[in-house]
Every structure is written in structure tokens, then in C-alpha cells.
Fold this protein.
Amino acid sequence: MSASIALLGQPNSGKSTIFNNLTGARQHVGNWAGKTVEKNEGSFTYKGTKYIVTDLPGSYGLSGNSDEEIITTDFIKSGQSELTVVLVDASQLERSMFMLAEFARLDKPALLVLNMMDVAKGMGKEIDTKALEEKLGIPVLPFNATDTKDYDRLKELIAEELKKPHKLAVAAPESSINVKTDSRLKFEWVSGLLENVTKTQGAVYKMSKFDRLMTRPVLGKIICIAVVLLAFLVSMIVMLPFAGVGQMIPTLLHDPVDKLLTDRNVHPWIVNIFSMMIPNTLSFTISMASFVLGVNIVFGFLEETGFIARAAYQFDGLLSKLGLQGKAICPMLMGFGCTIGGACGTRVMDNWGQRMLAMSIVWAIPCASIWSIIPVVSGMFFTWWQTMLVCVGILAYVVVTIMIVSKVFGRKLAPAETRSGMIMELPPYHKAHWKHIFKEAALKAWDIFRRALGTVTLVSLLFYVLSFSSDGNVNNSLLYRVGTVIEPVTSFFGMGWQTFVAFLSGAFAKEAVLGTLNAVFMGGNSVMEAAFFSQGTSTDTALLGTAMSQAVSGAEALAFMFATTFSVPCLMALSTTYKESHSLKWTVKVALFYICNALVLSCIVYHIASLFM
Amino acid sequence: MKLTESKTDMQGRILSVSGDDHFLNRITSIGITEGTAFQTVRNDRKMPVLIYLRETLISLNRADAERIEVETA
């Protein structure tokens, strides 16, 4: 037996917390057919009945013509769900009851949940829920999204209502084609209902001390940047123990597996798959998932406390020029640390198109790994001040890429009518509910791990096939053969086969770039070992520098550095983006854009630099 | 006066909002309707305007705030 219900509520009404706590891990995320709006579905079982829960997209009303509002209205009208659970924020009762006024016109069975009763009580606000229930004719449940007992009561009530559903007994507010009149009528309807139910205090609002700091024009921005940097550090700390264990896998497995299989005369091609590729892939994915865990904990905390909304207030002016909400500042800053962190940090944004656009912009931001490679490579060819110039040049082009990306993809992902400025609430600071944050972060990290493992293994295998050589010499690998065949093409873009192979390995993992250069110029190790950072891949940069500067011109080195920085991020970041966006089409589209961008850029840099060098 | 011209801590009332239906929909659904009492919480140059209205702290970018006429209560 199964039944279907829907959750309806404004942003910040605690809808996602309730959805997550009701359904736990039994969730399915996708997109509404033909729309760039995320569809969250989940289920729970109560007393032998399975309940399918649809989390309707958050919006402030239902009369507008945004995709979210149209989807929500159509879904409720269709009757696909037998009961709509309408959530309102008890601490901002009058304003959030607007959603019920919108819903009333649809005339469908419902129950009302007054969320955040604890906050309302803390404010000294009293609400007579019984009186409200009598006026409305549907059940009204006082609720506290963090109290587990309240969920049992909610489930029980849902089960009861499905047997004997109630529709609103009170007449829906009159409607008018004039938007202003229409809204006024709805608020009058709400005021009428709340008469004798609660009193709205008209006290003077005083900002908290912290908010007074956070909203200062300059200081507030500095605090935001500092907090996000700190958030990155904390995420790294969360990752370390897991990643440490993960890295033990290849170390522990390599020798025994290698010995076991080699003793049985298994072909080295197969041996390396089991002794090197699979353990390392597993280790990468563990590192990635544990970093995602860290980012989700930190961002969950920042979002729940209300920090993200303050950051959005600070940076909205700047980011709206790119078609983004101010909230995007947090994942973007995170991107300087790690693109994976940036991609999964976009979860704080409440609109799919905006999220996808933010992820594609985060790709343009060079991560810490890139910043660790560029000065080394540059130092092999240029003096220290020239290296500084290279870094400044890269930073300048980051801005250019961001502007191009927002122009190219912004029109589709953030259409003009969705970006007309920010109107948003700054929710009061809440205490963080750690249990909920940890639970949600763990679910998310596990989900990413489970789903990314397949993608990552597949691409690793491809790279393995390309880079394998029986004697460790690069010249015997497929990569060499392909590289040398297409060299006439790549050299037009400014890269010889060696630098091109290193460029390709950067799409696999940025850390692999130096090892690959070492492999192709020195024959010190195989490209395969470099890519999987296997044992014995220490790179002597001084020797490599001498070898490289003899084989490669300064112009080519410059072209290579720009190409590596502005190409697609590493495989892990790519698959995180795919998992976060649920859209293969968009991930591929953006990836193709970045590859073309890198090649064109490399071509331009090479040919211009050749004139001077 | 326009909302962008209001002083910090001013207690006021929304006189009128103007714009296309899309804008009106967004602004009224969050609670900014004509006649509603509000308080200007922060109004710095080049920053969004912060107002307190219907028990909610709301941030409006300056271009949008330009389209809202207010009076002191």
C-alpha cells in the first residue's frame, strides 16, 4: 500500500530539514520534466504503509510565473498527491501564512504545520493553534523541526488525514487580476484568520551586535572571506583522517597483490589494474567523499546559523552582474581551495539553474593544486618576477573566463527574469543542530562516494589503457603513439606531444601534471605511475627544469600553463559536478566549453608569446 | 520619499510599489504591500537596503528599493 503527499513552504520555512528527516536516505533527486528545477522525491514507511513525499520547489507565492511556481501549482492541481502539508514559520506567522492564502485557492486537502514554534516561544509569541484549527477546518500541528517526537506526531496525523482528508473550511481570499490588490486581499485574509489567534508585536527592531559587524560594507566582506577560508581549512581537517586511511589502501595492497598475481604469471597489464589502478582509484574516491563530507558539515553549519544569507547580502551587488545570487560567493571562494568543495558548496543556492551556473563559474577558479604546479613549471623557464607576472596574468584571465562563462551559459541557466535583483530575508541566527547537520552531510558524502566510484573507475581505466607501457618507457604507451600522431594539430595550439600529454593528465588529476612531465621528459617513471601518484614518483624539479627548458620553448611553456589552468577541473571535480547537478548534458556542455577555451587560449598565448620570445 | 532615501532606524509605512507584474509579485509575496509598517535597519551607499517588516529582516537591492515609495509613520 502506498500514498502520496507533498510538502509546500516558503524558502527558510525549514522545509528541507523536515523533508530530510521524514525520508532519510530514501531520496531521489532529479529534474522536473523539461525544466531546470530540481525535483526531490523521497519516501517513508509508517505502520506498514509507504508514503511518497514530494518536496515542492520553494517560492514565496504561487501566483507568479516562475518555473517553480508553475510546477508547484500544476502539481497540486493535478491531484497526484493526496495531501499537501503546508509549512509556515511560526516566528513570522503573518508573513509566511501568505503561502496558505495562495494554496487556499487550489481547494485541495491539506494540513498546516507551524514550524519553528521554539523560536516563536523564545520571542515571547503566543499562538492559539486550537483557535486557528477551528477557523481553518484543517488540522494545525505546532512543530519543532529538530524534535524527533514531533515527527511521529506528524506521521500519525498524515496517516489519519489520508483516511479522512480535510479541505479548508474557510473561503479562499477573493482574487483580482491586479497583482497589488490581489496580494492585499491575501494578506487581509491572513490578518482576519490570525485575529484572536496571535498578536503581532510592533516592537522596534534592534540588530544583534554580530549582525551590526556583518552588515558593515567593508568589514563585513572581510569577515565573509575569512570565514570561508576557515571553512576550507576545517573541511580539510575533517578529510584528513579518512583520506589517511584511504591512502593506506594502495600502500598496503600494491606489493601483495602485485606479488600474488605476478607469481601466477598474470599479464602485467592485468596485474597493474589490480595492484595500482583500482586501489588508487578507491583511495581518490575516499579522499573526495571525505572532503565532500567536510564541506557539507561546514556549509550546513554556515547555512543553518544564517551566515550564508549575510554573505549573500554583502556580495549580491557584485555577483548579480554575473547573473548569480550573492550566495554564490561562498562556493566561489571555496573554489580557490578545491573545485570539488566549490561544486558541492553550491548546495546553499536554492535554484537549479543558478547552481549549475555557479558550478561552471567555480571551474574557472584555479584550485590549490594548480597554484602549486604553476610556480614550479614557471620557475623552470622564467625568473621570479616573470613568474609573478604569469600568476597575475592567470588571475586576470580568471576574471575574463568567469565573464565569458556567465555570458555563454547565463542566458539559459539564469534567464533575465529570474535575476532581477535580490529580495531576500535574512533569517535570524539559529543555533546549529549538529545531529541533523552530521546526518545530512554523511548521507551526501556516502551518496557521492557510491555514485562517483563508477564514473571515476571507468575514466581511470581509460587513462590506464592509454598510459600503460610494459617496460615503463613512455615511448611504448598508447599515449605516446596518439600524442605523436596528433602532434601537428596540438603544436598549432602551442603544445608539443609531451606538454599535450601532461595537459591531458591534468584533466585526470592536477597533481599528476608534474609527475607526467617528469615521465615524458626524463623517463623517470611511467605516466601511469604519475597519474596514480604511485610509489617512487618523486620529481626532481631542478633536473626536470633543465631537461624541459632544453626541449621546450618559453612560449610553449607559457601556453601549456594557461591551457592546464583553464581546462576542465580534475576528474573528481567533474564527477562531483555531474552528481550535484544530476545533468550529464550540462556537465558535458560545460566541459566541452572549457576544453575549447583552454586550447584556443593556449593557441593565442603561444603565437603571441612566440613573437616576443 | 524613496526607500533608498530613508534614514537608518526610521519607522515608516510603505506608500506605493511600482513595476511590472513580475516584480510586484515577488515584492508583495514576501510581504511588502502598500500600507505595511516597516523600519529601515541599514541603508549604506552601494549596499542593499535592510528593512524590518512583518517580523522579518529583508534585504532589497538598491534598484528594487528605488521603486518603493515610503513615508515616516
Notes: The radius of gyration of chain B is 11 Å. Chain B is about 20% helix and 40% strand.
